[in-house]
Specification:
The protein is an alpha/beta fold. It has a single domain (about 30-185), classed as 3-Layer(aba) Sandwich (Glutaredoxin), CATH 3.40.30. The chain is built from 6 helices and 8 strands; from the N terminus they run αββββαβαβαββαα. It has a 6-stranded mixed sheet. Strands 2-3 form a two-stranded antiparallel ribbon. Helix 5 packs antiparallel against helix 6 (about 175-185). The protein is globular, with a radius of gyration of 18 Å. The chain starts with 10 loop residues before the first helix and ends with a helix.
């Protein structure tokens, strides 16, 4: 007697389940940064989408935002251009590094090109960086204060255009207060 499966395995079903589990609860919900316990970022470079090394280590004199995303994540697609705009407004006051979770370099390069986003992006194909930083939802952003202390994290999409975002990051020690003040004056 041969046993048959009532339902064949469906990779698409597994992928859809993973997307639901890993994606922020709803695109309409906006995440806020909250203080968190320190996490040590990797000290050496991580492979980037262009094949070069990308540093996730904190800078001594400016904060670093480590932004986790995936190409299949709808909130990530909406948020990345706004994050790039935030970086442009902050100037040299902050460094942002993207981390593509569970994706090959070729797919990530095409995704970034389709959005017109030019940020340094590290590959996290095995999800080890996401685990290290405690990321369970995409998108997520971890803010490292100057010198390397983990200052804050937001799990879900952030409103990078909100005037409160730089103030919140400055209060948590994750963005230079002068840059935050200047941006608030420009948006008012």
């Amino acid at each position: 007697m041969t046993a048959t499966r009532p339902h064949p395995r469906r990779p698409a079903t597994a992928l859809a389940f993973a997307a639901v589990v890993w994606t922020a609860p709803a695109a309409a919900e906006v995440a806020t940064f909250e203080a968190r316990d320190p996490i040590a970022p990797p000290t050496g470079p991580v492979l980037g989408v262009d094949g070069a090394g990308v540093s996730l280590a904190a800078d001594a004199d400016r904060p670093v935002l480590v932004h986790f995303f995936a190409t299949w994540c709808a909130p990530c697609r909406e948020e990345l251009p706004a994050l790039a705009g935030f970086v442009g407004r902050q100037g040299e006051g902050v460094r942002v590094v993207g981390v593509a979770v569970g994706e090959p370099a070729s797919r990530v390069r095409g995704f970034l090109a389709s959005l017109g986003v030019a940020l340094p992006v590290a590959l996290d194909e095995d999800r080890s960086l996401a685990r290290r930083f405690g990321v369970k939802v995409l998108p997520s952003t971890v803010a490292l204060a100057p010198g390397g202390r983990t200052a804050a994290a937001a799990h879900g999409p952030v409103d990078w255009d909100a005037s409160s975002t730089p103030r919140t990051l400055a209060a948590l020690g994750a963005v230079d207060p002068v840059s935050a003040h200047l941006e608030n004056e420009q948006t008012q």
